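LOG
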Amino acid sequence: MDTRDTLEQAELRRTARRVARELGPRTVADLDDRKRSERLAEAVRSAGWLELRHSAGDGDPLASGVEAAIIADALGEAVADVPFSGPILAADLARRAGVRPVDGAVVAFSADLIDAAVVSRAVTDTAILAVDHAARGPVAAYVLVPEGDGYHLALATTDGANDGADLTRAIRPLPAGTSVVRVPDQSRRLTHEDLDAWAALGLALTSADIVGLMRGVLDLSVAYAKDRKQYGVAIGTFQAVQHLLAEARCLIEAAFSAALYPAWAVDQLAPHDARAAGRVAKAYCARAARTVCETAVQVHGGIGNTWDCIVHVYLRRALLSSQWFGDDGEQLRQLERIRLGVTYGLS
């Protein structure tokens, strides 16, 4: 594969970063600015980014996983408080089932956030989670209903309160007993291969988001290290601080390289292979994110642990992106099972 952006992809990356930086939150207080967040949401909608995985008319998506990952990276870098991955994943799942996506719908996940929720009755058996939806108003979430050797799509709705540590992406619990309505006119049953390909997209998007947010929080930390003075000099001149920031930069560059392949693989490799590629990238990116975010908190010193410092917003977003579709431990366990035939881990 050629990892270089095409001219169109390079322009998309520049545009997405510009929009995210101009309309995304610059401080924690900006998260309460409803007018700003609505402008950001409108910019994302009007740019057509939420339709990237809609059907082009022949069953293929309008844009590749690479383009979707470019947007996810840019929004992560600015901790942009706008739904993106949630609607994209819902549209991709609907496209694979041959139905028109429900406007604003997302996908409901099991409580561990690893897999799409599976519901075998007319109501949910356990609590499930709708992830990355519009923060206000009722939420419609796709669930999977077993049917033969595949799955049928159904919708569950809720208007309850949001939950979760991430301050930029809403998570809403759908309690046990929530009604489920099958989606009409589904033209094809979802197979296990469809779900592998869909999960590969999810792994690519969450990995790209992690890469972006690591870049954003490191840029903040470098700027702070240049301005913050101790003993009359900027703390960025201290070798210990320089080493921390340099290690973080190396981790980000490696994570960016690791995340490129699964974004390409979504549409170019067999579903099983694409998901395996996503697992490798997610394992590396999730581990790198912990180190980079911890470094950012440390470099910011005493204010790094306070509410007013926006670093914790990046950390909270990293926690959700790392857990969504499985953290590094989950990915490594699955890779052991797939590649080594080990069921319960190495002994």
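LOG (cont.) second protein
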Amino acid sequence: MKKLLVVFIFLCSSHIQSQEKKNVPLKNTQRGFLAIDFLSIDMPTSRLGIDEDNMGFTGIHYNLSFNNFYTGLGMYGSVRGRRGGFFTLGINAGYTSYLTDKLFVDTGIHFGGGGGGGAPDGGGAFILPHLDLGIQFEKFLFTAGYSYINFFDGGAIKSHQLHIGVQVPINLYSATFVNFEKKYTINDLEPTDWNKKPKKVSFILHLNNLSVKKSGALVGKTVRLAGFEFNSYINTNWFYFTKFDGAYDGIKAGYMNVLLGAGHHFYFNKNRTNILTKFGIGAGGGGGVDSQGGFLIYPDLSIEQQISNNTYLFINKGFLMSPNSYFKTSTIGIGLKYYSNINGISKNISSQNKRFKGFEAIIKQEAYFNAKRITEPTENLHQISLQLNYHLTKNMYLAGQTSFANFGNAGAYAEGIVGFGVESNYFTNNRINVFLQGLVGAAGGGNISTGEGFIIKPSIGLNYNINSNISIRSSGGYVKALGGKLSNLFFNIGLSYRLAFLMSD
């Protein structure tokens, strides 16, 4: 009898373990690609009849692929001419058709909003269709063809031009969003598709001071920036990064920069103290900063010290300048960095617990009612916004948002803000939840009265689930510029794309 009882307990235990393993979320693959493109825009003749140099316009995009169709998001910035600080944000949609195994046709359209640099951008709304011929290589794809750009909401920028680009396949591996905050051990995950080498990444929130050395009337001034940075490691030492900053003090509102680059990580003191060197290139300007065409280079050195298991405090010193040093600053900053290993397991990592963390990418259209201007008549302001949420717990998230005007005679207006949100559990058959969030950061441009650029932006809203990955998201709230007259109610509506990534605790 005792033997039968032992056998029965063993069989039940094995069955429970097998059921637990079956409950590990499936690893889904979403095909996608990173794209970088360039076009040289023929700028309109000024009112005085003066011809202007072409504006070099370069973009970075990430698109999701669905068989031959693709859709995604992209940002553009000026890197040549005299419109430094001209930035846009928009959505992509396109179709790819292969003529041979290597040769294909790529046709699509980008719709967005933005402006700056004193350009005749009107309200900021524009379309950018293209028709390209492409060739596929082993690691990347190259495209070239025709494009047309039109700032149609009162803008004067309309141009036909050559369009060239490079596409690099980068797939997303994830679980469905309903699995976020579920925890598993390495033993649970070993017999599944998650048993791969994890990818090391880091997320940074930082403050930077730019001491202006060369740039006309701004020489000697200090520009204070707040921003976000994401690092992804190629191997143990080498990584690439993307960096976004906006000014909130020191000059009139409107300055921002977007940088891409690579770096090297030197480990000391058992990985508790580290030194990192970085070099980046990108676009920047606005807020009275004369960066000529907008192309910037960014050498930087930072030192970081561990303050908890995965969190580091760092200081950095570097330069941000145009290649010819027409615009030149010395930079110094501080920040918090969080490291994680995603979408894999490793027994060399101290923690044996793995948790699925939730991420959201939200694209929305937003309206400010009667947005105060500095000199122009008051009218509504409309903007396109991208918000990224990282879920700290089941009911709390960290948020970052960037927005660019697309209607309302304020094409140069832009925001870069961060903050926190809390949300309820889902109800009504897991379809709806409500959230409350508060964001702060930098905003300016487009003749909107934001003073030196610091704004606060609380809101309340709801999500409605369409399926496991996509929801409709809408909210309303209040925006206030602490140093300006912008003080308005706002409303937005958009779509949220949600995924869960496996991360180490």
